[in-house]
Amino acid sequence: MPLRPLSLGLARGTHHMKVMPQGTGPSVPHAETNSSNIPAIRMLSPGDVAAFRAIRLESLRQDPHAFASREEDWLTISESDWRQHLVGNTIFAAFEGETPVAIMGLMRQRAAKMAHRATIVMVYIRASWRGSGLAKAMLDALESHAAITNIRQLELAVRADNAGAIAFYFKAGFAEIGRIPGGFLEDGQEFDEILMARRTRRLPTDNGATP
User: Fold this and answer.
1) Pairing of strands 37-38, 31-32
2) Is 145 helix (H, G, I), strand (E, B) or coil?
3) Contact 85, 103 (CB under 8 A)
4) Radius of gyration of the chain from Cα atoms?
5) The model scores a pTM over 0.85
6) Number of H helices, E strands in the chain
7) What is the dihedral of CA 167, 141, 43, 79, to 10 degrees?
8) Could you give the CA distance from residue 19 to residue 211 in angstroms, rounded to a whole number?
9) Which domains are assigned to the chain?
10) Separation between Cα atoms, residue 187 and residue 121, nearest integer Å
């Protein structure tokens, strides 16, 4: 199920980020941008259930209109179900010290002939970090992982009234590829769902060629 971001941090100039390997602690010094520090970003492992639960529930609580799921849908799931989300999907989080402040996930298609595609899900940036360049840094981390795992196309869905997220994705090179009329239903009101996609920027090989 596509999960809709409500408000994203738009980059304010060139940034340099440090992406931490999966399973390492979040205590690596923050990477620098030309205007602010970006929290350390790393891919969550199955042992990161507590951090995943904290930031996921925060996102659903703070931006309840931003996602297809509701907070109560996730409050009742078991510890093993939380862990399975981390096993079955690629999920990055940004950490301010030990505290997760942002999340962005990648859900890969399972069918063999569609496994080169993945959907961006669970996008959330804590309000205090919006506008800092963190959203762009998270997207860059996600795309780097996608490229090295042979994902060729990134896809997402966003509610048609979410102008800030749509502008962010257009700026990041996504294009609208379709629209589902009434794709979201909330409190009896229907909202169109915009489908967007972008080819991954493939990483060069050691000899400089793009695979």
Assistant:
1) antiparallel
2) helix
3) no
4) 17
5) no
6) 5, 10
7) 20
8) 22
9) 19-156 (3.40.630.30)
10) 22
User: Residue 57 and residue 144: Cα distance in Å, rounded?
Assistant: 26
Bridge partners (DSSP) listed for residue 117: 153
In the chain, the DSSP E strands lie at 19-20, 31-32, 37-38, 40-43, 90-96, 99-108, 117-125, 153-159, 175-186, 189-199
Q: Which of 125, 26, 42 is nearest to 90 (CA)?
A: 42
What crossing angle do the helices spanning 79-88 and 49-62 adopt, rounded to 10°? 90
Q: pLDDT of 73-115, one tens digit each? A: 999 999 999 999 999 999 999 999 999 999 999 999 999 999 9
Interatomic CA distance for residues 123 and 162, integer angstroms: 13
The answer to whether 124 and 66 have CB atoms below 8 angstroms apart is yes
HSE (CB half, 13 Å, CA atoms) of 88?
10
Contact between residue 133 and residue 33 where contact means Cβ atoms under 8 Å apart: yes
Which residues, other chains included, contact 77 with Cβ-Cβ below 8 Å and sequence gap of 6+? none
| pLDDT tens digit sequence for 142-163 | 999 999 999 999 999 999 999 9
Strand-pair partners of 32: 37
Pick from 43, 51, 36: nearest CA to 100 = 51
pLDDT tens digit sequence for 187-204: 999 999 999 999 998 755
